[in-house]
Write a structure and sequence with these properties.
This protein has helices spanning 4-13, 38-41, 141-148, 155-159, 170-179, 200-218; strands spanning 24-27, 51-55, 58-62, 67-71, 77-82, 92-97, 101-106, 113-117, 260-265, 268-273. With 278 residues, it is α+β, with helices and mostly antiparallel strands. The chain folds into two domains: 4-123, MutM-like, N-terminal (N-terminal domain of MutM-like DNA repair proteins), CATH 3.20.190; 141-273, Helicase, Ruva Protein, domain 3. A four-stranded antiparallel sheet has the order 1-6-7-5, with no helix packed on it. Strands 2-3-4-8 form a four-stranded antiparallel sheet. A hairpin with a 2-residue loop joins strand 9 (260-265) and strand 10.
């Protein structure tokens, strides 16, 4: 599933459509996770894109009175082609056609979705519950400690809870916990002092999360199976993985003799080194 860096890469690539006007919309197959309301999308004809942004794993195109929310799901991708290109690829669902180019949403597994709303995005049912994002001012050790206080759950599961932090996915959580030398099974209470203040490992973890997200965005995210960026190229962060997907391989830390182990937490794969992640 595309995670925050992959979605941010897509958002950066379509920034050139800001201040451009939608001339027409083609919907080839409205059947995504939720069926696209074809009639609603016709309201966008002649509307100018005022802003393009991201919230968690959602791509957002603002038209003033309307907002498009795009979630890539498991296998969704965006690509840009010439306006007059008639090259149709299998699993193309929607084309947003602008003055000289068009944005195409493709999703083989149809687990993604695209929604048109006239609500305030912050109040939308998909966004209203989301916690702060990595790299934002509100994502810091003090605020994270408040959210983890009295939580009896594993730290990894907490980091994947979008009510606590939005946009983090399994890959980057595994990698951040490794860099911070934290065992994913550790209870949240271990990281918050009696005063409610963050302990040193939590401060380190916040720093490592931000570090990894920045690095991943800079190299176009990670490509494991399906993800490619808008130009069709792969991301390269997978070459920097320390633990993810490295089950039974040697720990990359030169001072460690451990072996990467794969376990399951809340039905998701977790990769860790039991020796240097305490």
């Amino acid at each position: 599933m595309p995670e925050l860096p992959e979605v941010e890469t897509s958002v950066q690539a379509i920034q050139k459509f800001k201040n451009q006007t939608i001339e027409s919309i083609e919907i080839f197959n409205p059947n995504l996770r939720w069926k696209v309301n074809t009639q609603d999308f016709q309201k966008l004809h002649g509307k100018k894109v005022l802003n393009i942004s991201r919230r968690a794993k959602y791509i957002m195109l603002n038209f003033g009175e309307f907002e498009i929310l795009i979630h890539l799901g498991m296998t969704g991708t965006l690509r840009i082609t010439d306006k007059y290109s008639n090259l149709y690829k299998k699993h193309d669902h929607i084309e947003l056609i602008f003055e000289t180019e068009k944005i195409i949403f493709n999703d083989p597994r149809r687990f993604g979705y695209i929604d048109l709303t006239n609500e305030d995005p912050d109040e939308h049912k998909f966004l209203s519950f989301l916690g702060p994002e990595p790299l934002s001012n509100s994502f810091n050790a003090d605020n994270l400690a408040k959210k983890l206080l009295n939580k009896e759950k594993a730290i990894k599961n907490a980091l994947l809870d979008h009510n606590i932090i939005s946009g983090l996915g399994n890959i980057y959580v595994c990698e951040a916990l490794f860099r911070a030398r934290i065992n994913p099974k550790s209870n949240c209470s271990k990281f918050v002092g009696v005063s409610g203040k963050p302990k040193k490992p939590l401060i380190t973890l916040v720093s490592k999360i931000n570090q990894i997200i920045k690095e991943a965005i800079n190299v176009g995210g990670s490509t494991l199976k399906d993800f490619s960026n808008i130009s069709g190229k792969m991301g390269y962060f997978q070459s920097s993985f320390n633990v993810y997907g490295r089950d039974k391989q040697n720990c990359k830390r030169s001072s460690c003799s451990g072996i990467i182990n794969k376990i399951t937490q809340s039905n998701r794969s977790t990769f860790l080194c039991e020796i240097c992640q305490k």
